[in-house]
Amino acid sequence: MSTIVTRAGKGTPLTNAEVDANFTGLNTDKVETVTSTDASILFTKVGTNIDLVVSQNSPASSLVTAVRNNTGSTLTKGTAVYISGATGQQPTVSKAIATSNATSAQTLGLITADLSNNSNGFVTVIGVVSEIDTSAYTDGDQLYLSGTTAGTLTATKPYAPTHLVYVAIVEYAHAVHGKLLVKVQNGYEMDELHNVSAQSPTTGQTLVYNSATSLWEKNTVSLTAGINGTLPIANGGTGASTIATAQTNLQVDPAGTSVALAIALG
Q1: Number of structural domains in the chain
Q2: Strand order of the sheet with strand 49-54?
Q3: What backbone phi and psi angles, to 5 degrees, belong to 154?
Q4: 162 lies in the same domain as 67
Q5: Cα separation of 173 and 199, whole Å?
Q6: 174 lies in which domain range?
């Protein structure tokens, strides 16, 4: 800490140099604090050191995006939504459900606060949504987009044909003060993988690797293409890849007479 010289302490008027030194000391050691209106962000400067404190509930600790609700009804806080369109240079959102790619692939996040119809509001994309009912879950539960009720979440991991969309983790299970940490991670369709070319498949097709294109491609299984190896006799095949070996395996002579049958008939 700097020493401040006062006239009372010195007993005589201060010199210009002493006044300058006092101002320099005050400027160096001064404490500056700026706090946001909701006290969630605190900026403090002590000398040359600067501290920035952001509380977990601060908007600065979350990523939110402006949206518009034109669904015809209120979207309540914590509702899972997807981008369903755009108007007035803002995306419009609707309740997401994991029954189709159209209503789940664009899942954006959870409604930050109750949003009336034909109103603008916010969706929490990454961050905490608090003061909601999470009593149906347990602390630490992973939550997925529901495939049964639009806009809701489930702690039961879904499997095909329900689409897999991870939405949040339960930070605090409580009927009133519940907290969810949101971070949407959308699953992939088979034909969305970068090394798979299998758009519009038909029943019975499978994936076969094509070294010429370095892609897994859809292929119709047949007895003339797309199959490698041999089919065992027990499964209705010959267990061979050549005619001669097949004849031996099936105990058939080149003339087509069954050796086994001839022996049996004596």
Answers
A1: 3
A2: 31-35, 41-46, 49-54
A3: -140, 145
A4: yes
A5: 42
A6: 62-186
**Does 259 lie in the same domain as 150?**
no
Q: Is residue 90 part of a domain?
A: yes
Name the phi and psi angles at 95, rounded to 5.
-65, 130
Place of tokens 């006799």: 233
d(CA 226, CA 229): 10
- Cα-Cα end-to-end distance for the chain: 119
User: For residue 262, is it left (φ>0), alpha (ψ between -120 and 50) or beta?
Assistant: alpha
Torsion of CA 34, 36, 42, 44, to 10 degrees: -10
The 10s digit of each residue's pLDDT in 120-171 is 999 999 999 999 999 999 999 999 999 999 999 999 999 989 999 999 999 9
* Residue 129 CB coordination number (10 Å): 25
| Band of pLDDT at residue 244, cut at 50, 70 and 90 | confident
Residues 2, 13: Cα–Cα separation, whole Å: 20
Strand partners, 216: 196, 209
